[in-house]
Amino acid sequence: MDFFTKINIPAANWQIDYNSRLAFFGSCFADNISAQFASRKFNVLANPFGTVYNPLSAAMQIKAIANGKIFGEADVFQDTRLGVSENGNEIRGPWHCWDAHSSLSAATREECIAKLNETTANAREFLQKADTVFITLGTAFVYFLRENGVAVSNCHRQNPNLFIRKMISVDHAAEALKSIVHDLLKIKRDGIGENRELHIVFTVSPLRHLSDGAHENTLSKATLQLAIEKVTREIVTEPATTISYFPSYEIVMDELRDYRFYDDDMIHLSKTAEGYIFERMTETYCSEKTREDIRKVEKFMKMANHRIQDESSTATATFQQKLQAEAQKLESQIAGLELNV
Q1: Global pTM?
Q2: Total domains in the fold of the chain
C-alpha cells in the first residue's frame, strides 16, 4: 500500500552541468532555489533587479535588459513619506525605482540611476551567455500606479492610495510570459558567441500568499498555471530553444503536504523542503555524472566552511594547504568549476 504520492517528472532532453550559466527571475522562491545552485558553485545570476512576484513585473525587468535600457531621471523618485522636520521642512529620503528592489535605491538620484544602469548592463552580459533561465511566478495579483496604470515591481512602502491592486487575467499573464520568451531570445541573438542554446523553465512558487485570502491564493496560482500552459503550447521557438514547466508547486502540495516542511511562519518552506526540491531539479536536469560532481563539491564546501579557531596556528596553515590542493584537484576533474578558495 502506498502512503505517498510522488510527482512524476520526466528527465529533460537537455542538461545542466558546471559549464552552464543559470539565471533566475521571480519570487523569493527563485532566490531560495538559486541559492541552492550557487552554494554548490554553479554560475548563477539571481534577480538582478530584486525579487518580483507577478508576471508583468518580471516581463518589464527582462524587457529593460533586452533593450539595454538607459535609466534616467524619469525612472526614479524620491521618498517623501518621512514627514516634516521641526522647522517645517519636508524630510526627504532615498531615491527609488518602481521597477527595482530597494537594494538599488540610493541617497542621491545620480547614484540610484547609476546602480540601475550598471545592473542592466551586467545582467545583459550574463544573459547573452546563459543557457538556462528559470522564471518563478508567485502571484497573479499586481500593483498598478493609480495615476497612469503602470505596473510596479516594488511599492517601496509608499502611500497605499497611490496604487490599485488587482488580479490579472490568464490572457494578460500569458502575454507577459510570451514577452519574456521573446526578450530572452532577443538577448541571446544579440550576444557574442556560438552557443545559441536557451532553455526557459517556468515554475509556480509553492509559497502561499495567504494575505490575499485562501481562495484568492488558489485562484491566483491557477491563473499562473493556466498562463504557463497557454504559453508552452502556443509559442513556436527556435530549434535550440525549449520552454517547459517544472512542478515546484505540485511537489510541495502533493509530496510535501505536511507542515513539518514549512518554516515557523507556516508560509515559507523549510530548508529541508528547499533541499528536496533542489534534488528533484537535479534529477530532472543533471546527469548522474553531474550529480556526483555536486556531491563532491558539497563535501568540499563542508570542509571549506570549517570554523577556524586560530588563524596563525600551524594546524590552520596545514588545513589551508590541504584545502587549496583539494580545490585544484576538483577543478581539474570538473569542467567549468571555479571554487575561488
Answers
A1: 0.93
A2: 2
